[in-house]
Amino acid sequence: MKLFEGKVALVTGAGSGIGRAAALLFAQEGAKVVVSNRTEKTGEETVRLIREAGGTGLFVRADVSQPSDCENLVKQTLEKFGRLDAAFNNAGIGGEMNPIADYSLKGWQEVIAINLSGIFYCMKYEIPALLKAGKCSIVNMSSILGQVGFGPAPGYSAAKHGVVGLTQDAALEYSAKGIRINAVGPAFIETPMIAPVTADKAARDGLVALHPIGRLGKPEEVAELVVWLSSEKASFITGSYYPIDGGYLAR
Q1: What pLDDT band is residue 1 in, cutting at 50, 70 and 90?
Q2: Any idea where the domains of the chain sit in the sequence?
Q3: What is the pLDDT of residues 177-229, one digit of tens each?
Q4: Residues annotated as catalytic (active site), given as ranges
Q5: Interacting residues of 161 by C-beta distance below 8 A, sequence separation 6+
Q6: Phi and psi (nearest 5°) for 237?
Q7: Per residue in 46-92, pLDDT tens?
Q8: HEC secondary structure over the chain
């Protein structure tokens, strides 16, 4: 039997990269998948890929920095499918690269609004729906930079550290009520977010060198962890941060 047969999964930032890979894998494991993204074109493309593979998908546009969008996302999920069993709060941006004294106020506010506040807003509206479903799960997207710094990226690092704390707090509050809540921390993964950097061979080689495994990660590898953590195979895991980093944090 598939891991999510008869269940509903919601994935934010599912228009490309890790979010798309996770949405496709949830569908492969039997879930009806709600695909959320700021950009309609790429979100609809993910839904098309799900349907072509024989799955069920629904696109709902949402900017997770807007609480009303997050509320509507869950509302649309329940109206279409009647339940919510798993949520992968993945949407995020890299933000600007500047040291703190030169970091723009707009840049700080944007990266915190999307990468940290967006996860709070999503959980705020997901949790009441998940409580009705019984045994269910949330996985939040952190980063290796949820554990260490990476100057000059203070906004991103602060947001991803915050995601770990928010995840742990939520797990303490809701694990006994049937919602397991965990965070994942990828290192540098082959996604559109880092494509501008990896287009330069020297820069790419520099990033690869940070990973003892000798390469960058793949979106599908992160998706495997996310879907496993979301399933009952991980039934005793909650409040945890799982790096998936090719050895980055072991350096």
Answers
A1: confident
A2: 8-250
A3: 999 999 999 999 999 999 998 999 999 999 999 999 999 999 999 999 999 99
A4: 156
A5: 142, 145, 146, 147
A6: -110, 120
A7: 999 999 999 999 999 999 999 999 999 999 999 999 999 999 999 99
A8: CCCCCCCEEEECCCCCHHHHHHHHHHHHCCCEEEEEECCHHHHHHHHHHHHHCCCEEEEEECCCCCHHHHHHHHHHHHHHHCCCCEEEECCCCCCCCCCHHHCCHHHHHHHHHHHHHHHHHHHHHHHHHHHHHCCEEEEEECCHHHCCCCCCCHHHHHHHHHHHHHHHHHHHHHHHHCEEEEEEEECCECCCCCHHHHCCHHHHHHHHHCCCCCCCECHHHHHHHHHHHHCHHHCCCCCCEEEECCCHHHC
Buried b / exposed e along 144-165 (16+ C-beta atoms within 10 A): bbbbeeeebbbbbbbbbbbbbe
Instruction: Please name the fold of domain 8-250.
Output: Rossmann fold (3.40.50)
Q: Is 52 exposed, middle or buried (0-12, 13-18, 19+ CB in 10 A)?
A: exposed
List Cβ neighbours of 103 (8 Å cut-off, separation of 6 or more).
96, 152, 154, 155
pLDDT above 90 coverage of the chain, percent: 98
